[in-house]
Amino acid sequence: QIADTVIFKNQKLLVIKRGFDPGKSKLDLPGGFVDPGETIEKAAIRETKEETGLDVKLIEKLGTFDYFDRQEKTSNAFVGIITGSKIKKSIEGEPLWVAIDKIKPSDLAFPSQFIPILRTFKKSKHYIQAH
Fold it and tell me: N or C: which end of the chain has fewer CB within 10 A?
């Protein structure tokens, strides 16, 4: 299981420019694998903190997304809001704010995971209310 966090602010999406393979230098959502005994919500919060330096609060589960190009994984995607700390680079990569409509499939580390999450987010009240 994987937990990902979608953070959208000022018409931009928070992404990680990955620091290593697979997908080195490509974009990904903050997130990662759920540890044994950890809830998917706690994993999303922990992974976002590790990768961006930011404290977040999850406000809604966006959905569960299966993808098969990485050994049949499942991503649990959440919408989050920043509650504290400062953004910072990590060993995972560099956090960046990217205009959501400028993201191309070729920019993404894992398009089969990212694109369905992004498509669902753009239909959500969190995206629509921001416009």
Answer: C
Cα separation, 70 vs 111, whole angstroms: 11
119: its two tokens? 């498509």
Both tokens assigned to 43: 């994993």
Which are the contacts of 17, defined by CB distance < 8 A and separation ≥ 6?
Answer: 25, 26, 27, 93, 94, 95, 96
pLDDT in tens, 63-100: 999 876 656 688 999 999 999 999 999 999 999 999 99
Phi/psi region, residue 128 (left: phi>0; alpha: psi -120 to 50; beta: rest), is alpha
Contact, 79 vs 60, CB < 8 A? Answer: yes
**Is it true that the peptide bond before 111 is cis, omega within 30 degrees of 0?**
no
72-82 burial, b at 16+ Cβ within 10 Å, e below that, comes to ebebbbbbbee
Q: What is the CA radius of gyration of the chain?
A: 13
Which phi and psi (to 5°) does residue 110 adopt?
Answer: -135, 75
Tokens 């400062």 belong to: 86
